[in-house]
Design a protein that fits this description.
The complex is a heterotrimer. Helices cover 67% and strands 1% of the residues of chain A. Chain A is mainly α. Classes of the chains: A mainly alpha, B alpha/beta, C alpha/beta. Chains in contact: A-B, A-C, B-C. Chains B and C meet through helix 8, helix 9 and helix 11 of B and helix 6, helix 7, helix 8 and helix 9 of C.
Chain lengths: 320, 334, 327
């Protein structure tokens, strides 16, 4: 019997018994286990559901006056009426659509720019890296809120512009994160092996580097959603938002402009703020737990004295 | 062992490769001389088809850098490398591409050398895809053949697995299969079993053994002299970027001439507790290859060094006491 | 009969797995160690040797459960877990960890890191500690003026020596060394092993060398235990293990180790893989891979029995032979 057949028999029984072990670092692995991830995902899912169902939930113009200004919450209007007499519930639902839309789109823009810059800088290194990272540094240094204000003032206040402006501010941390990951993946033996084979850079990036980097990018994008939604709220609150759409920021802005505080109409200010807070919280919880699981650098060790457990010595007569 | 008696497949002469070492800002400001790690400092050897040559030595001796230079994975600053008669040191990466099919490498770490997101079949198929060989169907056949050559039979059991489902030994077999699928003539194995358990090492090494019997030229890099002693046809012992002794395995192991080889062999632990011998433990550690001693590079630690050793850099030549014409050592005292 | 310096009896360690279930990593291991003896604990990855070592020191994580006795000079130090074992840590039993050379604090001098256990365990303070540190460094082959240098200024071999010095800081009776030379070159390995042997002799230190490298154990130790799947398969003098093994795994493990002087002898490989430790094991754990398995092996667990002077093995073949001999 030749050695390779023997080897074959040997290899066959060399421990292939790991039943469907999950690949470490896959998103499913984390999302289905961690309580924080589940909680965050649940919150986001709720709001996404509301946004998707809004055409059904909203009948007629949400801004329509249905009662006196700043009417307190009642049975028929659980969150009361705003400064124009419109139903807060309807307004919040309408706002959900816009705020989430801006948040997700801006996050995607950021992720795309940041991801591309990070991959190119990390993979090619050298001059490319230097140039891209300097650019990143410049963007990091510019204070984001004044930039947003100036840009909004210059380029107009359409929703698209808002999305682009937010996208352009927040890509820098993503770029750095992805670049660091790419730098480490680039040194992995299997990438070197593929390169030694003669694989082109394109192939190396798309087939070997990106798949490794993608989960982290996804996790980071979720976090970016949180930033983006907050940013949209802020910009709109400052009066730079798109005047033709309702968003949570607009609701807060309106409430302030209509002197809700003087009227003690907390139901006009707090609920939209609460919605923003909840979504940001949800996205942060989910994104953070994803990132913790995927980014090996974030692993925290515990420094407290570890105490193991002791089982009393079993008597020799004890059955196994 | 079917050694093709005619021209060697690989001929290396006077190979030199070095890495620059950073001076840091302070060093640059002080205008300190630029430092280099002389990883490969004048290495010459040849390798025939159907022959396994083991490059052995301690860390920093340059064995891995030599292997990588031969495969043109790192640049060289001197010397020549002739593969099948053709000089390859001056070739551009484009010109090297067809050559890459004929020489392959297997790395040390089976846990890192496979992309965790690629199934086994995809990893082995990749070289074929990169070089645009065959149709999808033909490639599938080649992948199966390679898996069987590497001892992973039946191939269908492994083709769709992910690396994390396999043991270290199996992963290394996959890596070997991936290196065989292009039908190379030269295989470099860089510490192929050092990260595997002892009980599975022989299985992997016997694959290399068989491939060598079928005509593959194998360059094995290892720090484990016992493994080299068992499997290689010839051994070359390296120290600080040079080959200090080389020859047929049995000859070098049983009749070592160079003082470094002798010391090294004397301290390799033996299995048999009764086989203690007198270990010749050298003092100190191997100096770094940035400042290579003048004269014979081994002279500061050599138990046999004389005054002349500090000035003469010995060449590889047949020692007086050698029993084989191919046994060479670089020492003026043997 | 003299009480051995260290007696490990029926040591069991379970780890709770994140998905539920338990990993039974050490399954009833036991061995004895005399003062000044050099003992090897040999096995491949996953056999439980490092876990067994950590149990002796009480360095197990919170998800670990331990049972059995670890008797140091007759006293069971595991009786009350962390509480009872911590006062013996470093004072009586010290350890050089795997990769210890890389476990130094990069921003503290080597000398201060060797002094640290002396302060912590109240062994010495101030100038006395400093002097003892310098003596230790000289003893392990590091010039004492290097005490004020930082770890990155030392080579790998030097750092390993420093790690040994740190282990000896409180003058323990037992030194555990976990793969002390695995990452080192063969010449440096020889230096470190020579150091360990001379330290054991000079300080009457008992040494437990944990490694997968059989030839190292063959050259350095007097006695050894071979571990497989969390249990001791065989334990004897190192000479007996090589020349008259009484367990197929021991024999095969030696056969799978290439040797400089073994000539044309074929190097063996052992097919298969060790059993999973998160499931109960029926019969002999080595049976699926054994070349001499017969009737009882698949169903009856062999017990560690005496097969010679200070020689125990857990294999049915030994009963079989004995039965045949007494028939």
């Amino acid at each position: 019997m030749s050695a390779s057949i023997q080897g074959g028999a040997a290899a066959a029984t060399e421990g292939v018994d790991v039943a469907a072990a999950r690949r470490p670092g896959s998103i499913r692995h984390v999302a289905l286990r961690e309580p924080t991830a589940i909680a965050g995902l649940a919150i986001i899912a709720f709001f996404v559901l509301v946004a998707l169902l809004s055409p059904i939930l909203l009948t007629g113009d949400p801004k329509a006056k249905v009662g006196p200004i700043f009417e307190p919450p009642s049975a028929s209007y659980p969150i009361g009426l705003d400064g124009g007499g419109a139903d807060m519930v309807k307004l919040l639902i309408a706002g959900t659509r816009v705020s989430l839309l801006v948040g997700f789109c801006a996050a995607l823009v950021s992720a795309f720019i940041g991801g591309t810059v990070g991959v190119l800088a990390g993979f090619y290194g050298g001059k490319t890296d230097v140039v891209l990272m300097r650019t990143t540094d410049y963007f990091l240094v510019i204070p984001d809120i004044p930039l947003m204000i100036v840009a909004a003032a210059l380029f107009g206040r359409s929703l698209t512009n808002i999305i682009i402006i937010i996208g352009i501010i927040y890509w820098t941390t993503t770029a750095r994160l992805i670049r660091a990951q790419v730098l480490s993946v680039r040194e992995r033996v299997y990438v070197k092996r593929a390169r030694a084979l003669g694989a082109s850079n394109r192939r190396l990036i798309f087939k070997h580097v990106l798949p490794q980097v993608a989960p982290l990018l996804v996790a980071n994008t979720v976090l970016l959603v949180a930033y983006a939604i907050f940013a949209e709220t802020f910009i709109t609150f400052l009066g730079l938002g798109d005047p033709s759409v309702i968003s949570w920021g607009r609701l807060i802005e309106n409430a302030f402009n209509d002197d809700a505080i003087l009227n003690n109409a907390w139901w006009a200010i707090i609920p939209p703020g609460l919605c923003v807070t909840l979504v940001v919280l949800g996205a942060t919880l989910f994104g953070q737990s994803l990132e913790d699981a995927l980014n090996p650098r974030l692993r925290v060790g515990h420094l407290s004295v570890r105490r193991f457990k002791v089982r009393p010595l079993r008597g020799k007569l004890d059955a196994e | 062992m079917s050694t093709n008696g005619s021209k060697p497949l690989l001929e290396v002469e006077g190979l030199v490769a070095s890495y620059p070492v950073g001076r840091g800002l302070v060093g640059a400001a002080k205008r300190e001389p630029k430092l280099e790690v002389h990883a490969v400092d004048g290495v010459s050897f040849s390798l025939r088809r159907g022959e396994m040559l083991a490059l052995v030595g301690e860390s920093g001796c340059g064995k891995t850098s030599t292997a990588q230079s031969v495969l043109r994975l790192i640049g060289t600053s001197g010397g020549s490398i002739r593969f099948d008669g053709e000089e390859i040191t001056g070739l551009s990466s484009k010109e090297l591409r067809p050559l890459r099919r004929r020489m392959q490498i297997v790395y040390q770490d089976p846990y890192e050398s496979l992309d965790p997101r690629f199934r086994v079949g995809a990893t082995i198929e990749e070289p074929l895809e990169v070089h645009k060989i065959g149709s999808k169907k033909e490639r599938r056949e080649e992948v199966k053949r390679a898996l069987e050559l590497a001892g992973l039979t039946p191939a269908d059991l492994y083709i769709n697995r992910y690396p994390h489902e396999l043991s270290g030994g199996q992963r290394q077999r996959v890596a070997i299969a991936a290196s065989l699928v292009l039908g190379p003539e030269l295989l470099v194995a860089d510490e192929p079993v050092s990260m595997l358990d002892v009980s599975v090492r022989a299985g992997i090494l016997s694959i290399l053994d068989e491939l060598r019997d079928k005509g593959l030229a194998v360059l094995m890099i290892t720090h484990d002299l016992s493994t080299a002693a068992h499997y290689a046809d010839r051994i070359a012992v390296m120290y600080l970027g040079r080959i200090v002794e080389e020859g047929p395995t049995r000859e070098v192991i049983e009749n070592p001439q160079h003082p470094y080889t002798r010391a090294l062999l004397s301290v390799v632990p033996k299995r048999d507790p009764r086989d203690r011998g007198t270990p010749q433990i050298l003092r100190g550690e191997t100096p770094n290859s940035i400042h290579i001693p003048a004269g014979c590079r081994f002279n500061p630690r050599c138990p046999m060094a004389i005054a002349e050793c500090k000035t003469v850099d010995p060449e590889l030549r047949r020692p007086a006491a050698s029993q084989d014409p191919e046994h060479l050592a670089a020492c003026i005292r043997v | 009969m003299r009480t051995p310096l260290l007696a490990v009896e029926d040591l069991n360690v379970w780890f709770e797995l994140p998905g539920g279930g338990e990993l039974h990593a050490v399954r009833g291991t036991g061995f004895e160690l005399e003062a000044g003896e050099r003992f090897g604990l040999v096995g491949e990855s996953g056999c439980g040797k490092t876990t067994a070592m950590l149990s002796i020191m009480g360095l197990l994580p919170p998800n670990a459960t331990v049972s059995g006795e670890v008797r140091l000079e007759g006293e069971n130090i595991l009786a009350r877990g962390e509480e009872s074992v911590s006062r013996h840590r470093w004072n009586d039993i010290a350890m050089v960890f795997q990769g210890a050379m890389n476990a130094f604090n990069p921003v503290q001098t080597v000398g201060s890191q060797i002094e640290e256990p002396m302060h912590l365990h109240g062994v010495a303070e101030g100038k006395v500690a400093r002097r003892q540190t310098e003596e230790l460094l000289e003893r392990v082959g590091i010039p004492k003026d290097r005490a004020d240098r930082f770890p990155h200024e030392f080579s790998g071999g030097m750092r390993q020596r420093a790690a040994i010095a740190m282990a000896l800081a409180c003058e323990p009776k037992i030194l555990l060394a976990d793969e002390p030379t695995t990452a080192l070159d063969v010449m440096v390995q020889a230096q470190i092993l020579e150091l360990l042997v001379s330290l054991a002799a000079d300080f009457n230190l008992a040494l437990i060398l944990v490694t997968h490298d059989l030839p190292v154990v063959a050259q350095v130790c007097d006695r050894a235990a071979v571990m497989y799947a969390g249990e001791v398969a065989e334990s004897a003098s190192i000479d007996a293990l090589f020349h008259t093994p009484k367990h197929p795994y021991t024999r095969l493990l030696f056969a799978a180790t290439p040797d400089l002087h073994a000539g044309g002898e074929r190097v063996a490989s052992i097919p298969g893989a060790p059993p999973r430790l998160d499931q109960p094991i029926v019969g002999c754990p080595f049976q699926p891979r054994c070349d001499s398995a017969f009737a009882p092996c698949a169903t009856e667990t062999p017990i560690l029995k005496s097969v010679g002077e200070r020689h125990v093995a857990a294999c049915h073949l030994n009963d079989h032979v004995r039965e045949a001999a007494t028939a």
